[in-house]
Amino acid sequence: MKFLQPLGSYFILMGRVLSKPEKGKIYYQQTVKEIVSLGINSIGIVIIISIFMGAVITLQTRYNLENPLIPTYLIGLTARDTMLLEFSSTIVGLILAGKVGSNIASEIGHMRITEQIDALEIMGVNSASYLILPKIIATVLFNPILTLISMFMGVFGGWAISVATGALTSSDYIYGIQYWFVPFYITYSLIKTVVFAIIITSVPAFFGYHVSGGALEVGRASTKGVVASSILILLFNVILTQLLLAK
Amino acid sequence: MITIRNIRKSFNKETVLNDISVDFDEGKTNLVIGQSGSGKTVLVKCIIGLFEVDEGEIFYHNRDIVRMTLRERQALRREMGKLFQGGALFDSLTVEENVRFPLDMFTSMTAGEKRKQVDFCLDHVRLDTAHKLFPAELSGGMQKRAAIARAIVQNPRYLFCDEPNSGLDPITAIVIDKLISEITHEFNMTTIINTHDMNSVMEIGEKVVFIHKGIKQWEGNSEGVLTSDNEYLNDFVFASNLTKKIKEKL
Ligand SMILES: Nc1ncnc2c1ncn2[C@@H]1O[C@H](COP(=O)(O)OP(=O)(O)OP(=O)(O)O)[C@@H](O)[C@H]1O
Ligand SMILES: [Mg+2]
């Protein structure tokens, strides 16, 4: 039952986050800033890991499918569907939970212990909303773009490794990635991405916002924020998959 | 004018403020003094509503903050300026942006009007060359001055300063004290200053409230501090050898 209390304070905090902003223009500027710092600055890492994962999935499928009865273009299909269904949303979500989550928790935690949050409050600013809402909006808007980039780069990585190693021919791979394409998989992945974006920002923000003490506690809050958001991503992955894909 | 009546505050059964009543005067520097841990910071945080009091009333010109809704409090807070013990400047903003922040947030002033007001405040605290610097690039005294500029940028009626000169050398400390006192008189603010610095008490103590272990022990002005017969206050004031010697000479 002990987990119920943080859950309660999480929802109280989110209630404050979602209350009407003082001044729209400032929130808009903050959101643009956060899109740059949380979104655009993550493009590099997303591209790199997606290319490598696309490549390794393709190789593994190739070397585990020695059966001559199975056509090699299915390897392209497997690489594509793995990226679309799981990798580009969930794994990228987990990696961003580490990168973006620790960044958010330590930034807000540091502001808490140096009284910057109190300073906002005393000016009459709703600090929860000012600090957290732009981050949530920025990731909800931008992470779907990261997911699409990841899908594209993963499929590209599979193609590149096929050509580079001769594991399968370029035309087989390209035929495979077009074969039996289910557009809903992209929708499914984007829906997951949006839910994960909310988790990745709001959960570490919650841990950062409620820090008390010193630098040590900020570090701890950042770890807790990353662990909690990772677990929640895995949990919601199961829930959303059951809801969206069960026939 | 801020009036507090019978304030009580405790944390987990440990009483930090015990039945405190004071009138803080308008247009004066009101000093709250006491040993470390006596409850000064908690008192000010209660007055501005960052902590909820367990009991008591706090009036800002007859408006009781204890019984206000969050919205009403936020509106009242726009009349307050606060200098935090550590400055609490926003790290990610330059000095200029820090000072301009409340204007951006709450006024519809034009860019030119804002610039004028920011320059006016930075000139006032004698920081007219630090506009583009970040807080991490300032010395402790400059940070305090930038924080004062931010606190006064909206012409507050009420100014709160928590240990404005802790960690500063005696000369800079007096500069900051005088600055706060000057601003208080110029704009007729109700200013409350927490301190354990006897120099500040003698320099700007128009009204002095002494707290010991959460109880108000004494109230008066800087003159009275030296001649009072309150035992705790005497221990506080004449703690050092220097002050003891001065007392013997008196
Ligand atoms: N958030 C809090 N939770 C629990 N106890 C607190 C809290 N804040 C302060 N206290 C306690 O209240 C007492 C008074 O603290 P306060 O910070 O007001 O002292 P102070 O007079 O400002 O001291 P200093 O001169 O060192 O700043 C201390 O015993 C402290 O432990
Ligand atoms: Mg204090």
What does this structure look like?
The complex is a heterodimer of chains A (247) and B (250). With 247 residues, chain A is mainly α. Chain A is built from nine helices and no strands. The longest helix of chain A has 41 residues, at 73-113. Chain B folds into two domains: 1-79 and 157-222, Rossmann fold; 85-155, no CATH class. The two termini of chain B are 35 Å apart. Chain B has 250 residues and is of the alpha/beta class. Chain B is built from ten helices and ten strands. Chain B has helices spanning 40-47, 70-77, 95-106, 111-124, 140-152, 170-187, 198-204, 222-227, 231-237, 241-249; strands at 2-11, 14-24, 29-33, 55-60, 63-64, 80-83, 158-162, 190-195, 207-212, 215-220. In chain B, helix 6 links the parallel strand 7 and strand 8 (190-195). In chain B, the strands form two sheets. Chain B has a six-stranded mixed beta sheet with strand order 6-7-8-3-9-10, with helices on both faces. In chain B, strands 2-1-4-5 form a four-stranded antiparallel beta sheet, covered by helices on one side. The chains are: A mainly alpha (247), B alpha/beta (250). The interface between A and B is medium-sized, with 16 and 22 residues. Bound molecules: adenosine-5'-triphosphate and magnesium ion. Magnesium ion binds next to helix 1 of chain B. Magnesium ion (MG) binds next to helix 1 of chain B.
Which key features would you list for this structure?
heterodimer; A: 247 residues; mainly alpha; elongated; B: 250 residues; alpha/beta; Rossmann fold; 6-stranded mixed β-sheet; 4-stranded antiparallel β-sheet; globular; binds adenosine-5'-triphosphate; binds magnesium ion
